[in-house]
Design brief:
Length: 279
């Protein structure tokens, strides 16, 4: 019987990408890998001894096509701890499959990261949210039917990973503590992954609200699924950039999303830096 071909976005491809990255950043093992969502890439500028690698120089990576996703890997010290940040992510709505959307997580794992921090811009479904609020992701709903684990199981992955606690309780508590020390209150909430790129209709938002979704966006979930299958611990924060359609009568635009993330960037960065100090 012929052996199955390695997955296009699997661990062999991730190991190749990691080898190339190490030639540019060195061999230091990161305490955490961070994925910075729309408009939140400013945290990459807070690294000390920063070494940068364009996505164009990483095998298997593409350049993000979305404004607010620069497409740069940054390695160095963040709050005194070795870390790697990915400034920009791949979305399924850009034409990538879910495996490609999760591929950067495979690469972070190959580089030695055991903790994954994810962030995103999201629309507020919970009616008490206001633009600029930060939400610690306690759980998520996959509203797309897409899954990065579809197909042959990758070596070292669980075939059927338990998702009872996709976001690590200890890391979530540490985020809340970091928020208190930084003077930034945050609520726990459920993040819903919608495929996009069109924003949700009022009827869809009403459905999400009844399902228990607190904030909705177009990313993050495939990354978390891949991380959990690989045994990584995960924490995440959503920046509520707007109220979802039907919660507000105001039109929604990506320009509004970026404007709010610029306003909240300082608070977001202070929380993450304080959280990193405790790792």
């Amino acid at each position: 019987m012929t052996a199955a071909a390695p997955a296009r976005w699997g661990k062999q491809a991730a190991a190749l990408a990691a080898r190339e990255i190490r030639t540019r950043i060195g061999d230091e093992r990161p305490v955490a890998g961070l994925i910075l969502g729309s408009g939140l890439a400013g945290l990459a500028g807070r690294f000390e001894d920063a070494r940068r690698v364009s996505y164009t120089d990483i095998p298997g990576f593409a350049m993000p096509s979305v404004v607010g996703h620069p497409g740069v890997l940054v390695a160095g010290a963040l709050a005194g701890k070795p870390a790697i940040a990915l400034a920009g992510r791949f979305h399924v709505y850009e034409g990538h499959d879910a495996g490609m959307a999760a591929f950067p997580v495979r690469v972070l794992e190959a580089l030695g990261a055991e903790i994954l921090f994810v962030s995103n811009a999201a629309g507020g479904v919970r009616r008490t949210f206001r633009p600029g609020d930060l939400m610690v992701i306690a759980d998520h709903m996959n509203l797309t039917g897409q899954n990065p684990l579809f197909g042959a199981v990758e070596p070292g992955d669980l075939r059927f990973p338990d998702m009872a606690e996709p976001y690590d309780a200890e890391l979530r508590a540490a985020l809340h503590d970091a928020g208190k020390r930084s003077g930034v209150p945050m609520a726990d909430g459920v993040y819903g992954w919608a495929l996009g790129p069109s924003y949700e209709t009022p009827a869809e938002v009403r459905m999400f609200e009844r399902l228990g979704v607190d904030a909705v966006g177009m990313s993050t979930v495939p990354e978390v699924i891949a991380a959990r299958a690989a045994g990584m611990r995960v924490a995440g924060v959503s920046c509520v950039t707007n109220l979802a359609c039907g919660i507000t009568a105001s039109p929604i635009s990506h320009q509004e999303v970026l404007a709010v993330t610029r306003e909240v960037a300082g608070r977001f960065e202070s929380v993450v830096l304080e959280w990193m100090r405790g790792l």
